[in-house]
Amino acid sequence: MDELLADLRQAILTQDENGALEVTRSLLESGESPRAILESGLAEAMLELGRRWKCGEAFLPEVVVAADIFARCSELVEPALLESQEARAPSFRLVLATVQGDLHDLGKNIVGAMAKTVGFDVHDLGKNVPVDQIVDAARELKPCIVGLSALLTTTMPQQKNAVAALEDAGLRPEVKVIVGGAPVTQEWADEIGADGYAPDAASATELALFLID
Ligand code: B12
Fold first, then answer.
1. Chain-centre distance of CA 190, in angstroms?
2. Which residue spans of the chain are classified as CATH 1.10.1240.10?
3. pLDDT value of residue 116
4. Element containing residue 36 per DSSP (H, E)
5. CA of 170 to the centre of ligand 1 (A)
6. Percentage of the chain with pLDDT > 90?
7. φ and ψ at residue 33, rounded to 5 degrees
8. pLDDT at residue 135, rounded to an integer
9. CATH H-level superfamily of 2-83
10. Is the CB of residue 64 below 6 angstroms from any atom belonging to ligand 1?
């Protein structure tokens, strides 16, 4: 199984779409946990690609293609992830968004997929979402939790703006805000007055469950 996960990472890193889809299917057929496929396979590969990109060993077009393959593979995994759900929380609503200016949505999508497995009614507003839209969704959909993703240091301030705007709209007593994304930290979450931070999708789900408890 570890070998297949390594093959999946390699297929993403070499932008081998057919290979990646084939290995994903093999992993699912051989009973690998969907969470492991998402985190130890797909997410790990993107992290490695990010490292290579940063030091000039990979280039933007490769990252674009790999991100597309990532999304296609996770579409295959999501149904299995939902079937594997263990404890269903009563249907609490979670609104998710990648903040304005930010087009990174792979991590947010994994957070949404995992939150569904524990019964959250997930409303995904997508990427590049303006603060006003986040506030409108909080007002209209009345979620228990709003989750905000930011992958760029330049878009993190939008998380802060969203917390402030929810406060100004008088919605903060009813809605918890959680934040995440590669550059985000617990310190940042504390600084902007968010209710929590999680470094990955599994802990984001645990955090969300904790907050509704
Ligand atoms: C893939 C990728 C892209 C893809 C995105 C495709 C897509 N559909 O998402 C593309 C090619 C479009 C892209 C574009 C750009 N990117 Co980019 N990208 C990446 C890369 C390589 C991987 C990100 C990723 O998908 N990781 C895999 C997922 C699964 O992990 P994740 O997103 O971190 O999510 C996990 C956790 O963070 C957490 N989480 C995520 N969201 C949330 C939300 C909540 C509420 C919670 C609790 C948890 C949580 O759970 C997730 C699952 O475990 C990173 C490198 C890196 N180290 O992150 C660079 C990176 C983020 N990009 C970077 C840059 C610079 C850019 C561009 C500006 C490049 C350019 N010159 O155009 C543009 C910006 C476009 C824009 N306006 O957003 C920089 C950012 C640097 C910085 N300090 O801000 C990075 C760090 C690369 C680098 N090392 O320089 N990028």
1. 20
2. 2-83
3. 87
4. helix 34-36
5. 31
6. 85
7. -70, 135
8. 98
9. Methionine synthase domain (1.10.1240.10)
10. yes
Contact 201, 107 (CB under 8 A): yes
In this structure, what token pair is assigned to residue 59? 């280039």
Q: Which fold has domain 93-212?
A: Rossmann fold (3.40.50)
* Residues β-bridged to residue 148: 97, 179
CB of 105 within 6 A of ligand 1: the answer is yes
The first and second tokens of residue 45, run together, are 């590969």
Instruction: For ligand 1, pick from 144, 151, 176, 207 the residue to mutate: most ligand atoms within 8 Å of CB.
Output: 151
**Which residue numbers in the chain have pLDDT < 70?**
85-90
**106's tokens:** 């792979």
pLDDT at residue 86, rounded to an integer: 53
pLDDT digits (tens, 9 = 90+) for 30-58: 999 999 999 999 999 999 999 999 999 99
Asked if 5 and 41 touch (Cβ cutoff 8 Å), the reply is: yes
Where does the chain hold its CATH 3.40.50.280 domain(s)? 93-212
